[in-house]
Amino acid sequence: MTQVSNSAKVSTLIDARGPRFGAAITTVVFATALATHNAWFIVAQAVVFAIGAFKGPQFTPYAYIYKFAVKPFLKGEVPTEEVQPPQFAQKVGLLFALVAITGALFGIDALVIGAVAMALAAAFLNAAFNFCLGCEIYLLLLRARSK
After folding, report:
1. Considering the domain boundaries, does residue 104 fall inside one?
2. What is the distance between the alpha carbons of residues 96 and 81, in angstroms, rounded to a whole number?
3. CA separation (Å) from 48 to 12, 51, 66, 93, 127?
4. What is the pLDDT of residues 55-110, one digit of tens each?
5. Are 14 and 80 in contact (CB under 8 A)?
6. Quick one: pLDDT band at residue 11, thresholds 50, 70, 90?
7. Residue 57 lies in a domain
8. What one-character DSSP code corresponds to residue 63?
9. Which phi and psi angles does 80 have, rounded to 5°?
10. How many distinct helices (H) and strands (E) make up the chain?
């Protein structure tokens, strides 16, 4: 007997405010890492990024904080977005965190500071202005691939 499977991707929608809240926490974590020169903050953030990159941003510890401590107090309609762009942004963030960790392991301070500063800037853009740089890169790549 032959089984027929539908290979079309199932669309997953998430609360669009969740990744922005996570970006605010990420901004604090990376700013603290820069201020203290403590690589453990970068490692912790890399773990969060890895969860978001491979399971989805809705499964990160920041998403659970948002879901149980912030979302119940918000009113109005819930804005939603596809999960793929924020998940791609988590992969980009993970890449920068891994570069920073590598720099820390080899004592290359400029690499650590540069990678963390760029990730901090991207997180701040999302947190403060609702502009997800990784999401925009995902959409540009998607458009380029469809041409």
Report:
1. yes
2. 24
3. 20, 5, 14, 10, 16
4. 999 999 999 999 999 999 999 999 999 999 999 999 999 999 999 999 999 999 99
5. yes
6. confident
7. yes
8. H
9. -120, 160
10. 6, 2
**What is residue 82's three-state secondary structure?**
strand
- The model carries a pTM of 0.91
Task: Name 111's Cβ contacts closer than 8 Å, sequence gap at least 6.
Answer: 99, 100, 102, 103
Parent domain of 53: 14-71+82-146
Residue type, 72: P
Burial of residue 26 (number of CB atoms within 10 Å: 0-12, 13-18, 19+): buried
Q: Which helix (H) or strand (E) holds 85?
A: helix 84-105
How far apart CA 129 and CA 125 sit, in angstroms, is: 5
